[in-house]
Design brief:
The chain is mainly alpha-helical. It has three helices and two strands; from the N terminus they run ββααα. The protein is rod-shaped, with a radius of gyration of 24 Å.
Amino acid sequence: MSGEGDHTRADLDLIKEMGNGLGRIKRAFDDLGKLNGAYGDDLGHEELSSKLDDFAGNWEISRKKLTEDVEALAKLAKDAAKVYEDIDHQLAEAIRGAQGGKPAKRGR
């Protein structure tokens, strides 16, 4: 958003793309496989395998929380764009009504 005098302007395309991009990140996290126990035999060293399992367990917890946060931000961005768009349309209709039905000039 940028201030222009007493007016505020929002880049709806940017806000929508932010929501879509965050949605793609969330899906990428969802598609990641689990690390727990997946590479134990390949590592060939019990302590290294144990450390990787510890890391994998912590990563699962962190990834779950991060995924939830990213999903919430994606929804927030999409909802914000929708609200701004609805307000823009309502203002345009109000201007048209105030001008006696003349089409309002679109611009942001």
